[in-house]
Amino acid sequence: MDFAFTEEQTSLREATRDLLARHHAAPVPGDAEHDPKLWQALAELGALGLPFAEDVGGMGAGPVEAVAVALELGKAGVRAPYAESLTATQLLCSDEGFDDLATAAIEGTRLVVPALYEPSRAWSPTPVGVTATAGSLAGIRAAIPYAAASPAVVTTACVGDAVEIYALDAPTFAGATVDLAGQEARAIPGGAAHVQRALNLGTLVLAAEALGAMEAALGLTVDYLKTRKQFGVPLMRFQTLTQRAADMYTSLELARSAVYFLAMTLAENPDDDTAVSRVKVIVGKAGRHVGQEAVQLHGGIGMTAEYAVGHHLARITAIEHTYGDTRFHLAKQARHVKDNDSRDLLS
């Protein structure tokens, strides 16, 4: 199967790379701050509307193009709410129509993010403690990304056994938390299947960003092994270290194939959450391997807050725990394994 980008997709990657080079700031420890200038530049590039139809204001492209942008974000170590914005925009666009907030998000005039986490609860795409009665919400959403930028949010709530979607244009935040009681919200067409479709897109984009971060971490490691000397010779002359770098490359390429395959899968069937869980497991394991090995092979400098490799590992780790960690998706995959004969290997 051909995983190569087309000429147009390659041009998009190059344009994104040039844009990030102009707007890139050195990463700092802690939560990322929203950069309005970078965000508007991404909107002018069309990156915020790549997977969405033209009648919404999008580019009418697809998930593969969104992956091309996310790869460069991860590789440059630039923190931006790209996956979050695409997830929220997808929630606002259903088969029944779209909300005007989606167009504002695509144009970059409003930052819109999903609010899908509940405090002190494990990740679940189905709301547990958030309910809606006659359009009034009750419950708390926590860990809202980029809450300091006062974004609009899209959340979900249970109405009986059904899941409904709601948009909040001007929520009141308490840190990164929103108490939904008393907030002005409006219902958005769509149910549980539409929520899963949005999570599929967001997870793909996050996996692509993690892939870009892995590329950067491996590149830094190889350069370090080539230039750093021990006992008068470059570290790359030590066979064990080069073998470990080769193992990192193997994990990276496995993750790359998985991400590209998922992008093409979602382009054909945006509701295929089984493929999403499979990629989440592969990228989670590969990212942990590549990131940790990169720090280890750098030695002491890899542990410093000033060096980029640690920032890449931190971002890869954060992505692994977003929208369900590796164990969550591995368990989800296991539930699809059935009707297989068992064998007693000791008899």
Automatic annotation (TrEMBL):
Family recorded in the similarity comment = Belongs to the acyl-CoA dehydrogenase family.
UniProt GO MF annotations: acyl-CoA dehydrogenase activity; flavin adenine dinucleotide binding
Q: Does the keyword Phosphoprotein apply?
A: no
Q: Enumerate the PANTHER family for this protein.
A: ACYL-COA DEHYDROGENASE (PTHR43884), ACYL-COA DEHYDROGENASE FADE28 (PTHR43884:SF20)
* Entry cofactors: FAD
In terms of CDD domains, this protein maps to: ACAD (cd00567)
Q: Which Pfam families match?
A: Acyl-CoA_dh_1 (PF00441), Acyl-CoA_dh_N (PF02771)
Q: Which residues form a coiled coil?
A: none
- Positions of the Acyl-CoA dehydrogenase/oxidase N-terminal domain: 6-79
What are the entry keywords? FAD, Flavoprotein, Oxidoreductase
- Determine if DNA repair is one of this entry's keywords: no
**All residue ranges annotated as the Acyl-CoA dehydrogenase/oxidase C-terminal domain in the record:** 191-335
Q: What protein is this chain from?
A: Acyl-CoA dehydrogenase domain protein
InterPro entries per record: AcylCo_DH-like_C (IPR036250), AcylCo_DH/oxidase_C (IPR009075), AcylCoA_DH/ox_N (IPR013786), AcylCoA_DH/ox_N_sf (IPR037069), AcylCoA_DH/oxidase_NM_dom_sf (IPR009100)
